[in-house]
Design a protein that fits this description.
Number of helices: 5
Shape: extended
Number of strands: 0
Structural class: mainly alpha
Order of helices and strands: HHHHH
Strand content: under 5%
Length: 149
């Protein structure tokens, strides 16, 4: 059961990180936000830096090359996020299978009601997947929607 909590916590923290990243990019340049991200990561790793002191010289080169690739990937993603006016939300409904169709319809109705009130300021779309018996089947549903073999 602990893994479910950890997966949900990861999802919440990842979503919060994306929101904070987008907000940070509204008032700061990409380089400034990336610098703060890198600085915070460095400070988190710093207490364990002594364990890396005994590495061979070639491994430092590999680490530098990997860091550069990550830097380029972050730059591209930050630039893309700044230009995208899109926010995505997901809703999972949990309950007895017999009432799932009713709950799905109620959920769609509520989302429709909320979004219709704001139609002048945003465009919105809703997509509904199929019901699954357990969370581990969600990737399979996603694959079916994407049309991948």
């Amino acid at each position: 059961m602990l893994w479910i909590f950890l997966v949900l916590l990861y999802g919440i923290l990842k979503g919060a990180r994306e929101i904070l990243k987008k907000k940070a990019l509204e008032k700061n340049s990409t380089i400034e936000v990336l610098f703060v991200y890198t600085l915070l990561s460095f400070l988190i790793v710093l207490p364990d830096a002594g364990n890396a002191a005994g590495m061979e010289l070639r491994f430092y080169f590999y680490i530098a090359a990997k860091s550069f690739v990550i830097f380029l990937a972050w730059m591209c993603s930050f630039k893309a996020i700044r230009k995208m006016p899109i926010s995505l939300y997901g809703v999972l409904i949990k309950g007895e299978e017999e009432r799932m169709e009713e709950w799905k319809e109620r959920c769609i109705t509520n989302i429709e009601k909320i979004c219709t009130e704001e139609e002048d300021s945003m465009e919105w779309y809703a997509a509904v997947g199929e019901a699954v018996g357990r969370l581990s089947l969600l990737p399979e549903c996603y694959t079916k929607v994407q049309g991948e073999p």
